[in-house]
Specification:
198 residues, mainly alpha, 11 helices, globular, binds heme C
């Protein structure tokens, strides 16, 4: 089975590739679509009106409600108009999992906030942090799966010990449903474990 070949090679490749680098900042991973933390940081770095920022950070909605909310606010927040449909869904999904932010986490000076470090981790962060210590990230990011299938993978004996809470597992599965399934030819050659594809 080809996946097994990729996996066997990946076990050898991982230690040299990943090392002590902070994965989210290594440009080799740029091909993995941005998660909600980075998308929201991008939107907020455009310095939209403070009232809109506070509304985004303080509301509790379902993903569908967030999609409507983001579309409604796109007039006041031009950075939202630039998002592609999948990015909008990824952002709405992230907001559904992470908002409202605890009041203490909302900075008083919104214009100077360092949003990238201040916002909670997104599914991409979780994948880079928890899904490449035993095998190459490619094993995860090339799979096109349903939410149930992802949660099933994470519940296998090989994965059940990973230190992710049930809610983080849900958030990761949700990100992967929208953003994984990346064709192997879009994966950097160094992450293809010898060029295996499946
Ligand atoms: C503790 C080591 C370990 C970590 C960490 C790990 N995996 Fe795995 N993974 C394995 C092993 C071992 C296999 C092959 C055996 C198996 O499939 O259970 C595997 C195989 C896989 C496969 C292919 C087989 C399948 O089930 O379809 C996928 C997809 C996968 N992992 C996803 C993930 C995701 C998502 C994460 C992060 C939440 C992750 N892995 C983190 C050990 C790990």
């Amino acid at each position: 089975m080809r996946l097994r070949h990729l996996f066997a090679l990946a076990l050898i490749a991982v230690p040299t590739l990943v090392g002590p680098l902070r994965a989210e900042y290594d440009p080799i991973f740029d091909f993995i679509p941005l998660g909600g933390r980075s998308l929201l940081a991008q939107v907020l770095e455009g310095k939209p009106p403070a009232a809109d920022v506070r509304a985004l950070l303080s509301a509790r909605h379902s993903r569908d409600q967030w999609v409507e909310e983001l579309k409604a606010r796109a007039k006041a927040i031009p950075a939202l108009q630039a998002l592609e449909e999948r990015e909008l869904l990824t952002l709405a999904d992230y907001l559904a999992f992470n908002m409202p932010l605890p009041t203490a986490r909302i900075p008083a000076d919104l214009a100077r906030a360092d949003w990238k470090t201040l916002l909670p981790r997104d599914g991409r962060d979780l994948a880079l942090e928890y899904c490449q210590s035993c095998h190459i990230i490619t094993v995860t990011i090339t799979q096109d799966r349903s939410r149930e299938h992802w949660l099933g993978t994470m519940n296998k004996p090989s994965h059940v010990e990973i230190k992710l809470t049930p809610r983080e597992r849900e958030a990761l599965a949700s990100y992967l449903v929208l953003n994984a399934g990346i064709p192997i030819d879009q994966v950097p050659v160094d992450l293809r474990a010898g060029g295996a594809s499946y």
